[in-house]
Amino acid sequence: MSEFNFCFSTNMLRVYVMLVICMHVCCASSDCTSHDEHDVVSQEEAEKATTLKLGSIALLLVAGGVGVSLPLIGKKIPALQPENDIFFMVKAFAAGVILCTGFVHILPDAFERLSSPCLENTAAGKFPFAGFVAMLSAMGTLMIDTFATAYYKRQHSMGTKQVNVVEDEEHAGHVHVHTHASHGHSHGSTELIRRRIVSQVLEIGIVVHSVIIGISLGASQSIDTIKPLMAALSFHQFFEGLGLGGCISLAELQSKSTVIMATFFSVTAPVGIGIGMGMSSGLGYRRESKEAIMVEGMLNAASAGILIYMSLVDLLAPDFVNPRLQSNLWLHLAAFLSLLLGAASMSLLAIWA
């Protein structure tokens, strides 16, 4: 599993680098609007905007770090451990945050970008690419989720069979006992593997979105735009981190892998702001170019598909069909209310960001 975690983290880094390259390619693209239509800011306003952006880097770094760390620290708190009822409510709240992020924050942005008048004469202007890419992304996530789980389940089953053969030869009189023990261990290992896959695929979807919103803030030159974005995105990163941190804590990763994943999430939005600042100041970045609109819209749609699938299939469905939850009406209602509260918290942020 350590090799799997290392490979998966490496692939996540590759995705991130590819994203930066795609955004860099868009820098030299032609604008859909004339240069006169862009806001002209004074030197003083530009300096204030730069100061706000630097402050937002620190703010988002703290907000994301605190959000993703709370569930990990919560593992040390008895009330937040998996065997407690409160854990179901915390997990439902986090799932509500992630589900709302996909439906309310990311997918509408994807539709808005890909239905831009600039793309009227392109394939995106004649076909609903946002929904199509989100669907393909969800299907791709399903394939990765199931194939990876099946692969590691087969690998574990082969190892279990070899152990059973040796045990059967040495302890023929205890075959029945060993078989049941191995079966229980196999079930637990498969569930743990699935949680690890879920946490890492989920991080990919969240990281891509975090980079995009960071670039959007960093490329902006309007103080009136930057100020509300700083506050809204701080809460946004905090709640997203809360949802992701809950999944990472369930995965029971090694300390090194946990720290890497938490750090990777925490720095992506600040790094995105830095990239946006570089693009806007020295690389001639034009957010309204056809290529930039296409890249941003496609990435947003793909992120939305990943988050919607993961929240519904991997986070909510297993808990809400859990016999422990269904046999307890009050716990069932409390988990559902937590889900609504998580979704409502993120929905309110859509007013400002």
UniProtKB/TrEMBL annotation:
Pfam families: Zip (PF02535). It is found in: Membrane. Residues 1-28 form the signal peptide. One of its GO terms (cellular component) is plasma membrane. The chain crosses the membrane at residues 52-74, 86-107, 127-152, 201-220, 259-285, 297-317, 329-352. InterPro entries: ZIP, Zn/Fe_permease_fun/pln. It is a multi-pass membrane protein. Keywords: Ion transport, Membrane, Signal, Transmembrane, Transmembrane helix, Transport. GO terms for molecular function: zinc ion transmembrane transporter activity. Belongs to the ZIP transporter (TC 2.A.5) family. This is Zinc transporter 1.
